[in-house]
Amino acid sequence: MHKFAMAALITAATALPTWAQEVNIAVGQPGRGYEARGLEIAQRLEQRGHAVSVVNYEGSDAISLAVCGDRALLGIMQIDAIYARAQENCDLKTIGTYGNEYAFLLFPPDARANELSDLDADSKILVDTIGSGTELFWRTIVSIETGDQGNKSRWAQATPVYDLTILADTMAQTGDVDALLVVGIPTNDEVLGLLDKGWSLGELYDKDINDMQYRGGSLYNREKVEIKVPGKWRTLRNDAYVVPSFIVVKEGLQAADRKLYGDVVASSQ
Fold first, then answer.
1. Helices and strands counted in the chain (H then E)
2. Which pLDDT band, with edges at 50, 70 and 90, does 15 fall under?
3. Where are the beta strands (DSSP E) in the chain?
4. At how many degrees (to 10) do helices 60-68 and 133-146 cross?
5. Which pLDDT tens digit goes with each residue over 126-161?
6. Burial of 220 by CB count in 10 Å (0-12 exposed, 13-18 middle, 19+ buried)?
7. How far is Cα 136 from Cα 206, in angstroms, rounded to an integer?
8. pTM surpassing 0.85?
9. Nearest 5°: CA angle at 253, between 54 and 131?
10. DSSP class of residue 129?
């Protein structure tokens, strides 16, 4: 082969993103739902002849950054991660659905506060670790409230605490947090455990959050969520926001490799 043609081929090969050689699937923390779904997709892709790795990240924010940075071919993430990356000129394409989670606001026993609007600059709210879906949700709603379309409510001045949500009860007892934000399913073990210990399900509502539009609809839809606590006689009900999650690839995959794109879509259904 002519040496110039060979050099061009080598240059083109080294310019390919890393996922061209191996399919990396970005998922959340070990043992949780994103990982389980990612392993299912990996198995289907392997049946189609692809080498696949499933890589764990802290949560939706970190997952979306991995896909945008070409460290993963596809990832499972919340709608607000897709929204956040779009603000940074990284367009992500939805190729499958994962399901809905909810953003819950909880308050410790004997707390005077019982809704989002009760928080202020003196409040400390536990929002999980940086890169998690919960931390991303908090950062997104604060940006909405403090942005051009928000009315700068006091709750947006609350101090976020970045730590494991499993520490919520201990941190509340020592005065390190006044509330807990969780993005998860209504049967989340941590949420049920706290409610069983006397925590209350607070009202998570703000008009500016409701009004935020994305992809032709509300970024977050508000619903009255119901949680039945095992061993309790009553069902708890209060306002929460729906946080849907999707299986996502970076825009441009279809044009770059039509067969790989087809295999990924088929494996994600």
1. 10, 12
2. very low
3. 23-27, 52-56, 74-78, 92-107, 124-126, 159-161, 179-184, 200-201, 213-214, 217-218, 221-228, 235-250
4. 90
5. 999 998 889 999 999 999 999 988 899 999 999 999
6. buried
7. 17
8. no
9. 45
10. S
CA dihedral 21, 26, 32, 38 (to 10 degrees): -50
Backbone φ, ψ for residue 202 (5° rounding): -85, 170
Q: How far apart are CA 238 and CA 227, in angstroms?
A: 9
Tokens 């941590």 sit on residue: 190
Q: Give, in order, the Cα–Cα distances in Å from 26 to each of 42, 59, 112, 147, 268.
A: 11, 9, 40, 30, 13
Pull the structure tokens for residue 266. Answer: 């088929």
**Positive or negative torsion for Cα 140, 144, 147, 151:** negative
CA distance 51 to 42: 9
Q: Tokens 């455990």 belong to which residue?
A: 193
Rounded to whole angstroms, the Cα distance separating 254 from 156 reads 40
